Give the backbone structure.
Amino acid sequence: MTGPFSALHHRSLTDPEGFWGEAAGKIDWYEPWERVLDDANPPFYRWFKGGVLNTCHNAVDRHVAAGRGDQPAIIHDSPVTDSIFTITYRDLQDRVARMGGVLRGLGVEKGDRVIVYMPMVPEALVAMLACARIGAIHSVVFGGFAARELATRIDDAQPKVIVSASCGIEPGRVIAYKPMLDAAIDQATHKVGSTVILQRPQCEAALIAGRDHDWQAASAAASPVDCVPVLATDPLYILYTSGTTGQPKGIVRDNGGHAVALSWTMEGIYGARPGEAYWAASDVGWVVGHSYIVYAPLLHGCTTIVFEGKPVGTPDAGTFWRVISQHKIPTMFTAPTALRAIRREDPEGRLIRDYDLSSYRALFLAGERSDPETVRWAETQLKVPVIDHWWQTETGWAIAGNPMGVELMPVKYGSATVAMPGWDMKVLDFDGGEVPAGDIGALVAKLPMPPGTFPTLWNAEQRYRDAYLSEYDGYYKTGDAGFIDADGYVHVMTRVDDVINVAGHRLSTGGMEEVLATHPAVAECAVIGVNDQLKGMLPLGLVVLKAGVDQAHGDIVKELVGLVRSEIGAVAAFKTALVVDRLPKTRSGKILRGTMKKIADGDSYTMPATIDDPVILEEIQGALQTAGYAQTA
Ligand code: COA
Ligand code: AMP
């Protein structure tokens, strides 16, 4: 690599304070920082220590002051309710200031937590920004999660208030949120004093007097509040993500580094310009939604699209192209699974031709590995660059990508292109040694990670060290395996842990196993992620029953499917389990999930040297084949 990006990347590693200090010039600060990078306490690093700012001021108020008041800040495009609604920056400022007043009135102060459990409505953004405005820490919980998942997060984050809505809308059905919220509040040990509920006309919720407050009435009555200065290192939000157990990890994001890094990415990675529309077709409950539906586009003065619909079926596979054309969107971001869904319904791209896409410049993909076939299809149909980039909830923005705003690098199918500024990526073997270019190993980042990443886990510093920093001294372990080729291109191949990726959603097989194990008939179980043409992966349960259980297997499986749906949520897409006699294990008792996955996918595998009883693998192979898995090409 010798182009302009290579020089920029080199500088970001050799002069991080200069590089990020300059980038911080895009942000308004009340007080400057003492140091750009505080490296006094490795392996903990802090960016812009001592700096004082407010993220909401930077995302909203300053744009109004600079003359963008009448520009749309949010366009809510909702095919599921058949409505399109625009909120200008001035209107957004008023709504956010009032919601800040509502939260303050309910006792929320700087540093307090607020859980936001909402569908894809603009009020979700208003709630998040209102927290940022008053220095409270929001924790958004994806609407597809059920009560138990919400309760776990309530107990960990200990919020003063929960902001929610009466319902979400999935194609063909209205999902009442309030019963799930009530159940979660009941289940949680931490007691939440107040909720604010947005009533939607599709399904009004019954409110509990004294605890539940109606969004409209409360914000109409509230006095607007101003932005509160916070430290760059104060948390802006906690976002829970799946780890290897049912206890999710609370990723902490701070204010200063986040604002600086996201601002840089809007120009450097996405090539987006202030005043333009920008669309991330994700959900506010995921990190992509936090970074690229809410914060980055607004920090950059763009118009963000809040899309409440699906790539197909709302009403058809042309919806994405309709939205791009109607709102003149140059930059759009989605998950490969969404494109696969569209391609399945419209393989010739006929619906694309119905729309004027002359403003469209680039399609960005993330959330899972972009399979080359899908990327090629999109390139041919859309005739714009299709750019894979790799990132995680932990990192908040891309670790590797194609920096379109600096230099569009040649695309290599199957690669997320090159490491982004501040990311010094290595591939290490089990012993921590660097492997030669092209060899697969653990993808790790040399510390410090750049600004905008996670400085710790909420109330779990030791878990932060153990899960991410202790295995490879001086490095952040991404949990992904892959290789870096001789041109410096990063190829992300697979997770090294039990986290699976279903339709771009990160899920814990360990969490699902914990739920299956609660069924009275189950003695032992394993969940593996089996390859799926549409969703990338689908979870498959393998269960061993307790001796003497005589319930029909079909009934048990139905109950297990229902259990995961009610305990984790529909989003887990857990639809199948197989009853087997025994599970294959190592001599030390570890279930061989990786080997079972290979068998289920029809991939070749080597018999693990440490296997306890090889016959069990043959039994599993037989059971999988009977169920339609384990078909070799
Ligand atoms: N609230 C309640 N339920 C929800 C939900 C929400 N916010 N989001 C999803 N669900 C439900 C769905 O209705 C579905 O229920 P079902 O089992 O009764 O059909 C289930 O959870 C699984 O949802 P999903 O994974 O979205 O599958 P789908 O079959 O409805 O749609 C895709 C498939 C590929 C179209 C869809 O997954 C998609 O658009 N994926 C893109 C993901 C994405 O943007 N990820 C963010 C990373 S960039
Ligand atoms: P999440 O934290 O939900 O964003 O999920 C992060 C995980 O998704 C990563 O650790 C990867 O396993 C996977 N992932 C995300 N983007 C990509 C990509 N572009 N290529 C390959 N895997 C990806």
Summary: The mean pLDDT is 96. Residues 89-105 form the longest helix (17 residues).
